[in-house]
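Worked example 3 (structure in, sequence out).
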């Protein structure tokens, strides 16, 4: 197929308008065959889901086996698991008003990328909350269905009639995909089963989206109650419809590949087929110009890039833009037919939401219906056996001997009443044989409880109420919470990743479809341009929800620990305001907007009050700074005076030390010269002098036993 034809297909509302009847018939047969093959691959997965849904339905009637009126208990563990996960996912993953932020990948020297992505983020959050008609409601519904079936899908499309994007939840049993698929990016076929009334079909035909085909060939048989168009019996009363004319028609919308021109290469399309007749009603391209990969200078690149490089090479060959302007030449027109198609990359607008990855590596994830279905059946069976055994034991009954005449009938006893009988006491005792029943088995009861406890461990939401006490340290409590929420956090992480992929698809669709006037109105900026802002593939979607913060207790514990570090943040010159704001958000305070108001939403009086408070705070800060400066200067003066006094005292002590040491040395020398008994009196006298010298030295805080550093002699003249 040529590049020109592919590019023309991109803008067509229905490619089927250009195809003949034989080609459409072959396409319809191919779609139906692929649908049946994919459905067959899902047999085991579907059986488990059907069984799980049946186990969730509570019964209001007794069973007929092993006798009429037997117990028919169904344990609600699957329903409980679904409710607990859905409640927590809705409250945690959808709690923020803004669900995403958009950041540009790469350097941003002038800050223009940041400003552009800020505008895109604001618009996309508005789009999700208000422009997509119940996105939050549908997402919450998905959270309740996903735990049991294990897999669901979201499809993002642009509605030409409504001029807006919409996100469609596709859950069991409305999707069919081959279990051999590895990922949605390389999925060969994905089918969505859709039901449309005749009126909805007519709307699509009149708008030009669908072909006007003969879907109802035999109108007379259509009104017959009891047989539908496939020959299956049904009842209008069971279907709660007045007339079979109101029954919706089944269509298959399949994302697949087909070789329309027979060149041996299949291009990606979305094909819609009427299930009963197998006729094609619509074909649209599943690619854009950036998806068309061509060869240029032995390199494979997108068509727009190849055309841009070709234009640059031609201009460069003429000496550049300046030379072409001098020669009066216009920029060259590049012929798309000059490029050879190498590959057409499909635009995948369907996102998979998974719960538990299948251990056998198949594509569809597992839910509680798969991992807890058999255990729930065992719990139901043992509970019903215990109940039936208790019923038998309580009801009584048995066998009567032939001595009891049949006409006696049933004898009913009342409390405190004695009934007289004609049967002798001995025969009465021997003639009644009660049913050989026993009380419910304790071993069976223990097994039932063990299975129930085991099933509870599979639930994603852990109960930590018994592990955290009032005396538990905050850091320890936080560690316990984080460890207990590991399973939930892992599941939330997979959901957040899928949600990010869905937002990425929405971003890409917005590049070519977002209404410029609406874009300017949302931003209140007449210069805002959605084409320029969305024209980049180097973006990263950052969800506001965090898988690591999947409980309110966890957020409060973390915020409390951060709040304790505010003094350290202040000492290091940090900004403690985000910590304080985070604490108020974690505890769910409604006063955050009043404590930290947004100036754009404040009244003039509030703004004036805030300005006065800010001015007073500034004066107070300046006064405090001045007082601090004065105190600092006074302290510096006192420190200088104290330092001078210390130096003077140290000098006097040093002088006294030298003088006393010299006296001590002279006294010691005289004492050493006293060698005879005649000089003993002199020794005693000098010993007293030495003692007095030592005391005198001690008064100056000097230990005479310390080593005295020698005093350097004065320099020689």
């Amino acid at each position: 197929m040529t590049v020109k034809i592919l590019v023309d297909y991109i803008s067509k509302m229905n490619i089927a308008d250009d195809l003949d009847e034989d080609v459409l018939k072959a396409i319809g047969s191919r779609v139906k065959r692929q649908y049946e093959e994919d459905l067959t691959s899902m047999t085991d997965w579907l059986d488990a889901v059907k069984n799980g849904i049946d186990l969730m339905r509570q019964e209001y009637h007794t069973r007929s086996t092993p006798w009429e009126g037997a117990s028919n208990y169904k344990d609600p563990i699957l329903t409980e698991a679904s409710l607990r996960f859905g409640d927590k996912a809705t409250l945690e993953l959808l709690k923020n008003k803004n669900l995403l932020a958009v950041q540009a990948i790469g350097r941003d020297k002038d800050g223009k990328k940041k400003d552009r992505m800020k505008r895109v983020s604001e618009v996309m959050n508005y789009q999700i909350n208000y422009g997509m008609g119940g996105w939050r409601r549908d997402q919450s519904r998905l959270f309740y269905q996903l735990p049991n079936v294990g897999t669901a899908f979201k499809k993002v499309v642009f509605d030409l009639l409504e001029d807006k994007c919409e996100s469609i939840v596709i859950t069991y049993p409305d999707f069919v995909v081959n279990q051999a698929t590895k990922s949605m990016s390389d999925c060969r076929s994905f089918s969505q089963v859709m039901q449309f009334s005749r009126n909805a079909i007519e709307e699509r035909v009149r708008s030009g989206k669908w072909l006007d085909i003969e879907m109802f060939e035999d109108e007379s048989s259509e009104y017959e109650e009891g047989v539908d168009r496939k020959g299956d019996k049904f009842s209008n009363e069971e279907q709660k419809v007045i007339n079979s004319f109101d029954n919706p028609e089944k269509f298959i919308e399949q994302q697949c590949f087909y070789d329309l021109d027979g060149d041996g290469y299949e291009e990606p399309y979305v094909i819609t087929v009427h299930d009963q007749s197998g006729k094609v009603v619509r074909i649209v391209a599943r690619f854009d110009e950036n998806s068309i990969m061509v060869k240029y200078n032995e390199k494979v690149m997108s068509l727009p890039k190849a055309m841009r490089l070709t234009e640059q090479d031609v201009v460069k060959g003429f000496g550049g833009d300046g030379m072409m302007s001098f020669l009066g030449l216009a920029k060259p027109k590049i012929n798309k037919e000059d490029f050879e198609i190498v590959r057409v990359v499909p635009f995948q607008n369907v996102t998979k939401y998974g719960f538990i990855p299948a251990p056998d590596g198949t594509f569809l994830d597992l839910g509680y219906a798969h991992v807890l279905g058999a255990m729930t059946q065992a719990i139901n069976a043992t509970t019903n056996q215990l109940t039936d055994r208790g019923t038998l034991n309580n009801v009584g009954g048995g066998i009567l001997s032939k001595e009891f005449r049949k006409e006696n009938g049933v004898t009913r006893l009342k409390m405190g009443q004695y009934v007289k009988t004609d049967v002798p006491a001995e025969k009465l005792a021997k003639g009644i044989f009660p049913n050989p029943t026993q009380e419910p088995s304790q071993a069976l009861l223990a097994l039932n409880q063990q299975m129930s406890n085991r099933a509870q461990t599979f639930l994603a939401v852990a109960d930590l109420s018994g592990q955290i006490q009032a005396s538990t340290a905050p850091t320890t409590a936080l560690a316990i919470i984080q460890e207990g929420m590991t399973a939930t956090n892992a599941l939330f992480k997979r959901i957040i990743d899928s949600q990010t992929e869905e937002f990425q698809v929405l971003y890409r669709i917005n590049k070519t479809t977002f209404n410029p006037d609406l874009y300017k109105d949302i931003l209140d900026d007449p210069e805002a341009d959605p084409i320029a802002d969305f024209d980049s593939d180097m973006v990263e979607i950052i969800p506001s929800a965090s898988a690591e913060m999947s409980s309110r207790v966890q957020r409060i514990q973390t915020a409390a620990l951060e709040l304790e570090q505010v003094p350290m943040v202040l000492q290091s010159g940090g900004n403690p305001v985000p910590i304080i704001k985070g604490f108020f958000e974690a505890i769910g305070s409604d006063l955050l907007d009043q404590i930290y108001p947004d100036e754009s939403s404040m009244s003039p009086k509030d703004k004036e009050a805030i300005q006065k408070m800010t001015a007073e705070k500034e004066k107070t800060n300046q006064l405090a700074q001045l007082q601090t400066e004065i105190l600092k200067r006074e302290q510096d003066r006192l420190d200088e005076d104290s330092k001078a006094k210390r130096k003077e005292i140290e000098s006097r002590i040093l002088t006294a030390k030298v003088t006393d040491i010299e006296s001590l040395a002279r006294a010691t020398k005289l004492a050493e010269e006293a060698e005879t008994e005649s000089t003993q009196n002199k020794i005693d006298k000098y010993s007293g002098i030495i003692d007095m010298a030592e005391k005198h030295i001690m008064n100056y805080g000097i230990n005479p036993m310390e080593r005295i550093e020698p005093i350097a002699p004065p320099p020689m003249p």
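Notes: The longest helix spans residues 604-673. The CA atoms of residues 353 and 498 lie 6 Å apart.
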